């Protein structure tokens, strides 16, 4: 069965544990920034006028104001990345630059919930680019000026339009003389999409443009860590069954299998991968520190800051439970509240679920008092990444397709596996913990109140962290998951994708009278 939203061979650093981004949403903010960056490089001219159009029946149209999706897309058009703290104020920059930018909604005939249509003008040129945010910061451009394409930002990519498809082989041969072994990503009638091993210079692009059968040529610069020469296009594993086989054959731990996966995927060495993880750990620590020590202002302001209050109650001995659980809950809420206040976080695997993994691993590290916590963090994040990599290949991180079970839910499963690894459990136990965790939240709706990532998202991060810790405890005590993790992923996808009501914020808590009232107050 072909599944919408799945990712072939996802990178753990790029789209499973990343990106590092401003909140509140990786699919509604980080993804649109990257779409804007791709559009900026594709158009290749100085922008003077632009239209950013969201499908009036899609998810963006309902939530873009609260999520700052309009700000995100325009930030990308200006060349800003997902970490830029000025994203919420980007229209001040637009005004200062004298750009003519209009954001609107319009009908679009397509099933994808996160479609954006960009129309740009400048230097006597016009272009229309259509793309989508695929969840967790992953993106795709699938149409340029009416021609189909396939650009995901992982590689330097050429898009060439010809006057006659009969001359495609000649055009490809000409390109091959400039850059060796271009890979055909998509060939449709008069258009060819090619993935390259490097970006071409303006002089080289002009040579292709001057070819007698080429009408136009566009280059899309990558927006992710680009695989090095020698990286494999074949995934090191695609299922939990394959992970178990690798563990049995090699004796490797889960984090080591994940490390091999990412070395295979990006061609990076261990030190380079750990360097990227260092930045993620640093941002997680900063967001946790902010969440439990600062007074935050949420983008919508419909919820009260709870993580800091709970942490203070825990320190004062006023919580019902003691030890790891209330601390982990407070940490998870605190990190997600930084996201809700448009602060910098790690979308692991999404911004909506960004509190679960740090809430779990930081509290467990404090509880166990490891001698070298830096190594423990590396191992924990890689173990979580292995679970997320399998999930992305078999399901999706896009809640608009399958509900919050593929955001907070899988974040919980990733965290549970990380905890098992931290406690010295086996690879099989880590997979069982992920399986049980996902079983516990099967069917969870995506239903942000008033279109904001505050209610119930923040408290669901708390639930996700508790779910992860308790599932790990259950497995480490000797309880097996009856249903294998691969089968649980299948059930998760089918539960979400084939329900009568789709998970795009149009059901559940999002349609309660209070939510509708709050939504009107936001306008």
Can you characterise this structure?
The protein has 523 residues and is an alpha+beta fold. The chain folds into 2 domains: 197 residues, D-3-phosphoglycerate dehydrogenase, domain 3 (60s Ribosomal Protein L30, Chain: A, 2-Layer Sandwich), CATH 3.30.1330; 283 residues, no CATH class. Helices cover 48% and strands 14% of the residues. The chain has 20 helices and 12 strands. Helix 14 crosses helix 16. The longest helix is centred in the middle third of the chain and has 24 residues. The chain is globular, with a radius of gyration of 23 Å.
Which key terms come to mind for this protein?
523 residues; alpha+beta; 60s Ribosomal Protein L30, Chain: A; 2 domains; 4-stranded antiparallel sheet
Determine the mean pLDDT: 94
Low-confidence stretches: none
The end-to-end span amounts to 41 Å
Q: What does the main sheet amount to?
A: 6 strands, mixed
The number of helices is 20
Question: Which range best describes the helical content: under 10%, 10-25%, 25-40%, 40-55%, 55-70% or over 70%?
Answer: 40-55%
Radius of gyration: 23 Å
Structural class: alpha+beta
Sheet with most strands: strand arrangement: 3-2-4-5-6-7
């Amino acid at each position: 069965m072909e599944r919408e939203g799945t990712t072939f061979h996802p990178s753990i650093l790029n789209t499973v544990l990343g990106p590092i981004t401003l909140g509140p949403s990786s699919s509604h903010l980080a993804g649109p920034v990257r779409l804007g960056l791709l559009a900026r490089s594709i158009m290749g001219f100085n922008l003077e006028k632009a239209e950013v159009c969201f499908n009036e029946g899609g998810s963006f149209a309902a939530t873009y104001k609260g999520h700052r999706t309009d700000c995100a897309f325009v930030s990308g058009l200006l060349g800003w990345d997902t970490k830029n703290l000025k994203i919420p104020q980007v229209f001040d920059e637009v005004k200062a630059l004298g750009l003519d930018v209009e954001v609107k909604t319009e009908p679009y005939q397509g099933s994808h919930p996160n479609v954006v249509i960009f129309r740009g003008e400048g230097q006597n040129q016009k272009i229309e680019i259509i793309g989508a945010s695929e969840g967790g910061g992953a993106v795709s451009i699938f149409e340029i000026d009416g021609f189909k394409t396939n650009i995901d930002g992982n590689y330097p990519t050429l898009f060439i339009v010809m006057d006659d498809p009969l001359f495609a082989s000649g055009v490809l041969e000409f390109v091959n003389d400039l850059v060796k072994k271009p890979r055909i990503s998509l060939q449709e009638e008069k258009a060819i999409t090619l993935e390259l091993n490097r970006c071409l210079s303006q002089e080289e692009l002009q040579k292709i443009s001057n070819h007698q059968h080429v009408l136009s040529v566009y280059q899309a610069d990558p927006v992710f860590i680009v695989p090095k020469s020698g990286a494999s296009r074949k995934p090191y594993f695609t299922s939990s069954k394959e992970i178990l086989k690798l563990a049995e054959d090699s004796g490797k731990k889960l984090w080591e299998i994940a490390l091999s996966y990412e070395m295979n995927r990006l061609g990076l060495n261990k030190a380079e991968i750990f360097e990227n993880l260092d930045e993620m750990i640093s941002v997680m620590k900063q967001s946790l520190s902010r969440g439990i020590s600062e007074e935050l202002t949420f983008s919508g302001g419909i919820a009260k800051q709870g993580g800091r209050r709970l942490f203070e109650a825990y320190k004062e001995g006023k919580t019902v439970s003691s030890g790891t659980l209330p601390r982990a809950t407070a940490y998870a809420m605190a990190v997600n509240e930084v996201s809700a206040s448009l602060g910098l976080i790690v979308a692991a695997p999404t911004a909506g679920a960004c509190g679960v993994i740090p809430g779990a691993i930081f509290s467990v590290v404090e509880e166990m008092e490891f001698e070298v916590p830096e190594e423990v963090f590396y191992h924990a994040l890689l173990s979580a990444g292995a679970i997320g990599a399998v999930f992305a290949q078999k399901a999706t991180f896009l809640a608009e397709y399958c509900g919050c079970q593929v955001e907070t839910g899988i974040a919980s499963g990733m965290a549970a596996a990380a905890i098992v690894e931290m406690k010295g459990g086996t690879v099989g136990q880590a997979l069982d913990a992920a399986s049980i965790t996902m079983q516990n939240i099967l069917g969870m709706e995506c239903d942000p109140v008033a279109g904001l990532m505050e209610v119930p998202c923040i408290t669901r991060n708390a639930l996700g962290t508790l779910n992860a810790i308790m599932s790990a405890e259950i497995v480490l005590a000797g309880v097996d998951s009856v249903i294998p993790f691969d089968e649980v992923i299948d059930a998760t996808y089918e539960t979400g994708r084939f329900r009568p009501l789709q998970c795009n914020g149009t059901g559940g808590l999002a349609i309660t009278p209070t939510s509708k009232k709050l939504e009107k107050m936001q306008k």
